[in-house]
């Protein structure tokens, strides 16, 4: 069992061949800790998944060698996706609601392309958070990280 109580055998991304078939994707690179797969359907050519081999349910559980290598791996993967697709930038986002195995979605973005960044990712009817909520969050993060090594 994992921290989120999902048996690893039930995790689709822990079975990469099954995940490749389900998402219609092709693994294009891997190292000891990470693998990168490009999805072969949808509106965004070059859309990719970067995921650890080891079952880590969410980004908040990221630890060990995966945590230590994430920066260089993410930088290398996004640079490759950007160059391969001719994108101006590559959006990187993490959601964990559908598949509780950490994965970074890499989405190449072209001007006038299918992706809408920035405020377009927030519900249009969502009210802004109160200034006090923003301030409290910033202060809490600063305090939590002040003791970090």
Coarse morphology = globular
Number of strands: 5
Name of the top-level CATH class: Alpha Beta
CATH topology: HIT family, subunit A
* CATH-assigned homologous superfamily: HIT-like
Would you write up a description of this structure?
Helix content is about 30%, strand content about 20%. The chain is α+β, with helices and mostly antiparallel strands and about 150 residues long. The chain has one domain: HIT family, subunit A (2-Layer Sandwich), CATH 3.30.428. A 5-stranded antiparallel beta sheet has the order 1-2-3-5-4, with helices on both faces.
What's the topology here?
Layout: H1 16-23, E1 25-30, E2 34-39, E3 48-52, H2 64-85, E4 89-93, E5 104-109, H3 131-146
Task: Describe this protein with a few key phrases.
149 residues, 3 helices, 5 strands, 19% strand
Summarize the structure.
This protein has 149 residues and is α+β, with helices and mostly antiparallel strands. Helices cover 31% and strands 19% of the residues.
